[in-house]
Amino acid sequence: MLERLLVGETISLDLVNTEWIDRGEMVDFLAADGAAELWFREYGFDPATEDVEALRAARAAIRSLLESPGPEADARMNDVLSHGYESTRVSDGRPGTTSATDPGWGAAWRAARAFTELLATHPDRIRQCAHPDCVLYFYDTSRNGSRRWHSMETCGARTKSARHYRRSVSEEKAKQH
């Protein structure tokens, strides 16, 4: 079983992060044996009633909005969102919201809906990792909103190490001239 690189984000960003690049090749976690079922269970969905193709459609729609927003990306997201709805009702004087989805679309719709909530509340906190070879996204929860990498231990350290190496090489060349 593949191990995901970044977990613990919101359901929508966790879904987008089921694709990453490893040694120059795109990896699809959802394509690994048993991985989609594990993802469904992690978010409280019954794998027997969910459709992995719907989940992939939601992932593509969210990624499309992140990477190339516009009418086509909007249409992809709206297609996913059309598979469910929310309803507000009052019971015992208190409002409550329930959702209903087409069969197989529960997880996909919930991830897409959660992404629209992020866009509505804090779109400036949704970030792609600053490492040039990383395709992972994160929600910046730092106090000043300055987080740059999905992980300081991996991409942050690689970026800083590469910068140090370039600086050392430049200084060495300058000494030789």
Notes on the protein architecture:
InterPro entries: ABATE, ABATE_dom_sf, Znf_CGNR. With 177 residues, the protein is of the alpha+beta class. The protein has a single domain (11-176), classed as Jann2411-like domain (Jann2411-like fold, Orthogonal Bundle). It contains six helices and six strands; from the N terminus they run αββαααββαββα. The protein has helices at residues 11-16, 35-42, 52-67, 71-81, 106-121, 152-176; strands at 19-22, 25-28, 84-91, 94-101, 126-128, 137-139. The chain has a two-stranded antiparallel ribbon. Strands 3-4 form a two-stranded antiparallel ribbon. The radius of gyration is 20 Å and the shape is globular.
Low-confidence stretches: none
User: Any idea what the CATH superfamily is called?
Assistant: Jann2411-like domain
Oligomeric state of the chains present here: single chain
Taken from the alpha-carbon principal axes, the silhouette is globular
Mean pLDDT: 85
How much helix, percentage-wise, in residues? 40-55%
Any idea what the CATH architecture is?
Orthogonal Bundle
Main sheet characteristics: 2 strands, antiparallel
DSSP strand (E) fraction?
A: 15-25%
Helical stretch tally: 6
- Give, in spatial order, the strands making up the sheet with the most strands: 1-2
Give me the CATH fold name: Jann2411-like fold
SSE order, one letter for each helix or strand: HEEHHHEEHEEH
- According to DSSP, the number of beta strands is 6
